[in-house]
Amino acid sequence: MRILVVEDEEVLARAIVEWLRREAIAVDVVHDGEAALERLAANDYDVLVLDRDIPRVHGDEVCRVVVERGDTRVLMLTAAAAVRDRVEGLALGADDYLPKPFAFVELSARVHALLRRSRPAAPPVLSRAGIDVDPARRTAFRDGAPLPLANKEFGVLAELVRARGTVVSAEMLLEKVWDEHIDPFTNVLRVTVMKLRRKLGEPPVIETVPGVGYRIP
């Protein structure tokens, strides 16, 4: 899961990013519409958290571009709470609308709802090979026993379970679980998978496909 936050209030932007990263979501952040369009052209995002009133390129125009592409869900933020403003935002094609100020728990709930809509229909709890992962509640179990996972371990496991037996490349895992600042040549993924395997216990469930990536068959 990877999202882009576009918010010109840097303190608020930082708080949103920190909150979502605690939930094992990879988050990039920019502070104006021009930078947002550049990131959207370079990367694939599941959800865009978009402040409507941003400099350089207005949030309305950013929303129009994203809607035309049709591959990213849009959660629009604004300080204007009037019904007319909400209707205008949704009329632009935004999938959801959240007026400021908002509770971070509501923000994350709406992001998770959009993440589910951005993918093919899947049950709220993902299951494979005796493993159950609930992305919304951020819980994971193997054969009924809870798994005490760090954020990145949880993110990797969720992506592997979600893949339903297909191979997930190392590049895709880095893109979905980490953010744009990750060094593509780092060994952080290998170390995370090693720790995850240890916590999952026996018998081994994560298979390495040499030169390709990982899967849970």
Automatic annotation (TrEMBL):
Q: Name one Pfam family in it.
A: Response_reg
Can you tell which superkingdom this protein's organism belongs to?
Bacteria
Protein's organism: Saccharothrix tamanrassetensis
| Position of the signal peptide | none
Q: Which InterPro entries match?
A: CheY-like_superfamily, OmpR/PhoB-type_DNA-bd, Sig_transdc_resp-reg_receiver, WalR-like, WH-like_DNA-bd_sf
Q: Which CDD domains match?
A: trans_reg_C
Protein keywords: DNA-binding, Phosphoprotein
Question: What is this protein identified as?
Answer: DNA-binding response OmpR family regulator
Annotated membrane-spanning segments are none
DNA-binding positions are 123-217
- Give Gene Ontology CC terms: cytosol; protein-DNA complex
The record places domain Response regulatory at 2-115
A GO molecular function held by the record: transcription cis-regulatory region binding
Annotated GO biological processes are: regulation of DNA-templated transcription
Question: Which positions carry 4-aspartylphosphate?
Answer: 51
* OmpR/PhoB-type domain segment(s): 123-217
